[in-house]
Amino acid sequence: MRQRLLGSVLHAGAALDLFATEQHEWGTTEIAEALALPKSSAHALLASLTEIGLLERTPDRRFRLGHKLLGFGETVLAGSEVFNAVRDMLNELMQRLGRSVYLAVRDGQHVVYINRMQGPSSVPASLGSAGPTLPMHASAAGKILFAHAPEAQMRRILDGRRLEQLTRRTITNESTLVAELKAVRRQGYALSEGEYVSELFCVAVPIHNRDNEVVAAIGIGATAADFEMNREKMVREVMRAAQIASREQGWRPSRTAEVDRRLG
Q1: What 3-state DSSP class applies to 56?
Q2: 168 vs 189: CA distance, rounded Å
Q3: Do 160 and 112 lie in a common domain?
């Protein structure tokens, strides 16, 4: 009984994971094929998720995410230390630089936005409409969170994963990506230069907690021309904001890091 219940929960989670901005409605047959389930099992699963409000039916008998999930999102954010600590700072950064800013975290093999603020500059609307998740290999925040994942987790994420080419500048070679992630760890920030959305350039920096773990990434987006002219300022400002946010999470630079900073 316990095993069957666990299997049902795992199937429910897998079904919910299918819904994304690029395909926000699914039919029973499509979900059955995607999850390798008999159609009758998929129908029962979807009916149960609809009954508890996690899914809802469309007029043409397909399924989409239910509004009940919005309440869960608000509850998650209310309990998120990093979200509450960084929210005002993110707004301040957006106001000071006049550009779009965002906060992202890693959720398993995915990188998700937990806050986005659209600045008044001519940043591509793609930053605000590209969806709730980010590609690990093509986004600045994804590279930050990927680079600082434990080695075993990084290997599991890479194994068997195809690095999708999203623009002509996307890194699709695994060895090239690994080399870049090593550089990201070394330099303390990551760039996405038209790799996710061709006209969108971003810089992201890690936020650490008291145990020196990377718990989130803070980033800023700009057009290619804007970024080229103001790259150093953007990197400096985002690094400054991330350091303040990290300190509010209880992080303190190690003595070695402090010595290196003074000598450097």
Answers
A1: strand
A2: 22
A3: yes
